[in-house]
Amino acid sequence: MLMSTFVQARARTVYSRIRAAAACTAAARGEDRGGRKEQTKLDAPPNIDSLTLARPLDAVPIALMSRRLVEAGLPTWAWTSRRVARHVHDPDSVVLAARRGEEVTGFAIMGFGDEAAHLNLLAVEPRCRRAGLGTRLVRWLEESARIAGTFEVSLEVRATNAAARGFYKALGYAEVDLLPGYYDRIEDAIRMTRDLRALRIDQPG
Ligand SMILES: CC(C)(COP(=O)(O)OP(=O)(O)OC[C@H]1O[C@@H](n2cnc3c(N)ncnc32)[C@H](O)[C@@H]1OP(=O)(O)O)[C@@H](O)C(=O)NCCC(=O)NCCS
Questions:
Q1: Is 43 exposed, middle or buried (0-12, 13-18, 19+ CB in 10 A)?
Q2: What is the H or E stretch that residue 123 is in?
Q3: Backbone phi, then psi, for 78, in 5-degree steps?
Q4: How far is the CA of 54 from the centre of ligand 1 (A)?
Q5: Is the CB of 166 within 6 Å of ligand 1?
Q6: Dist CA 108 CA 94 (whole Å)
Q7: Most CB atoms within 10 A, among 5, 93, 177, 197?
Q8: What is the pTM of this model?
Q9: CA dihedral 15, 124, 41, 47 (to 10 degrees)
Q10: C-alpha–C-alpha distance, residues 190 and 21, integer Å
Q11: Where are the domains of the chain?
Q12: Is 79 near ligand 1, meaning CB less than 6 Å away?
């Protein structure tokens, strides 16, 4: 009973810390937590994707994008809409959606722990790539982690995904481990990490 009270109290602390950090990051970009944008000079032009915390209804398009863009060819659909929805509600997770109008054009899911944050999933629609959107999604979450006092970010990527490995390297991630058979025992993963401590607060990434 005592332990469960402790766990609930800790969960509430982490929840408010992460949500406050996410809200703070959103505010810095002229967005509010409900996804509405304040009308300021910082507003992006209409063809630029806005970043907002995902809503429960976004779980379906995000899961479909994961299956099509991240998990293609794997026997198991790991990131179903039910699992994504759990992360939308999880106090220790942030699901970030990029939108053009109502369409979800990209997303990223990060779990936050006391010592490290884990980038679970990231994808950008093919027609929206190489325009900096993947970088914006990752930097937004890194900034939230940093504000929350979590300075290490880790992730796993399919060993055959040369494009994503190139992308993460370009963002300062180092390949630190090979995990044989990590995906359904048929494909290896590469673990990559980035230490955010080296960054100055005024450095864009
Ligand atoms: C990986 C991914 C998210 C990158 O998104 P993006 O919006 O195209 O990325 P950016 O435009 O921010 O790219 C930033 C830099 O990363 C590197 N990069 C991006 N795509 C790359 C590719 N296909 N090959 C090599 N380097 C790449 C480049 O240095 C790029 O800068 P540049 O365009 O000025 O050369 C996108 O390719 C994707 O959704 N892939 C499928 C899903 C996936 O693999 N997710 C990651 C594993 S969970």
A1: middle
A2: strand 116-124
A3: -75, -40
A4: 21
A5: yes
A6: 8
A7: 93
A8: 0.83
A9: -150
A10: 29
A11: 2-36+43-198
A12: no
